[in-house]
Amino acid sequence: MRSEGGPLTFSARPEANHGASTWCISPCDRHLSPGGYQLELNGRAIDGTVTLRQPGTLHGEYLSRAGMRSSAWLALNVGGIIGGVFITVGMAGGSKPAFAVGGGVLAGAGVIFVLTYRSDRASISFTPDPPSDVREMPDPATLSGARHAALERNSLGSTPRGLGFRIAF
């Protein structure tokens, strides 16, 4: 699994089996059997099922809209406070336009909230080629026993270079 952005958590659950899923933090290589998979990036499910029939690379893209959601809540809260103040002033015997201004501010804050509050987006594409960072490299040596388990660990000093998932059959 590979990506152009920062590291992502990738999860693949076989379509026929609702048991354990295969997951990794990018960039990573995992072996998946041919078949259909339900995929997730950072906990966000990808719509539909992805069918894998040949070795290749899954490329993931995750668009976080957390900043927009924070702005939406801020606009709603500030608009609610300002609009509430104008409505209260109008009710306390202030000027008549205060009601209209307060209602307009509340309506405007609601519209801004609806327009800017968006969920995150995740997408995955498949290419039959190996990832560019492992092309023309020899296949990894097969080891067994405790040494093999020790080689599966991620290195503490490694720096992520994007999201990648290599599929080999």
What order do the helices and strands follow? EEEEEEEHHEHE
As a whole number of angstroms, the C-alpha radius of gyration is 25 Å
Please tally the β strands and state the result.
Answer: 9
What characterizes the major β-sheet? Answer: 5 strands, antiparallel
Tally of individual helices:
3
Low-confidence stretches: 146-161
> Which range does the strand content fall in?
15-25%
Distance between the termini: 15 Å
As for the number of domains, it is 2
**Overall 3D shape:** rod-shaped
Overall pLDDT confidence: 77
The class by helix and strand makeup works out as alpha+beta
Question: What's the structural blueprint in terms of helices and strands?
Answer:
Layout: E1 9-14, E2 22-25, E3 28-29, E4 35-41, E5 44-45, E6 50-52, E7 56-63, H1 66-91, H2 97-116, E8 121-127, H3 146-151, E9 165-167
Parallel strand pairs: 3-9
Antiparallel strand pairs: 1-2, 1-4, 4-5, 4-6, 7-8, 7-9
Helix pairs in contact: 1-2
